[in-house]
Write a structure and sequence with these properties.
With about 130 residues, the protein is mostly beta strands. The protein contains 1 helix and 11 strands.
């Protein structure tokens, strides 16, 4: 089982960009689907983006409608890293962002947005977007 640690959060003005990083431990990283979720105060944790497991770091990607076209998830299996590039940030993107790893595989949105599909979670990194 991998362990994950997020980094890269911070304060940014609306319209700005941030890149979150997620470092994973373990030698079987390529066997894990990786996801990003977020949770704002008083709200439930919600799906942001996910990338399918892949030996060549080119797994299919999935996005929540609210971030589609603005956020990009990618992975680098050689470095055991997952990234979330966030552009055109909005105040409503303000949340704690969590990286998650799950040893599952499927080809549709129906599994990647489910919290219970993931068995390893990081501590989260705060992203604050000012208006």
């Amino acid at each position: 089982q991998v362990q994950v640690v997020e980094s890269g959060g911070g304060l940014v003005q609306a319209g700005g960009s941030l890149r979150l990083s997620c470092a994973a431990s373990g030698r079987t990283f390529s066997n894990y689907a990786m996801g990003w979720f977020r949770q704002a105060p008083g709200k439930e944790r919600e799906f942001v983006a996910a990338i399918r497991r892949s030996r060549r770091s080119d797994g299919s990607t999935y996005y929540a409608d609210s971030v589609k076209g603005r956020f990009t998830i990618s992975r680098d299996n050689a470095k055991n890293m997952v990234y979330l590039q966030m552009n055109s940030l909005k105040p409503e993107d303000t949340s704690v962002y969590y990286c998650a790893a799950g040893q599952f595989d499927c080809s549709g949105y129906g599994c990647y947005d489910r919290l219970l599909a993931y068995d390893s979670w990081g501590q989260g990194t705060q992203v604050t977007v000012s208006s």
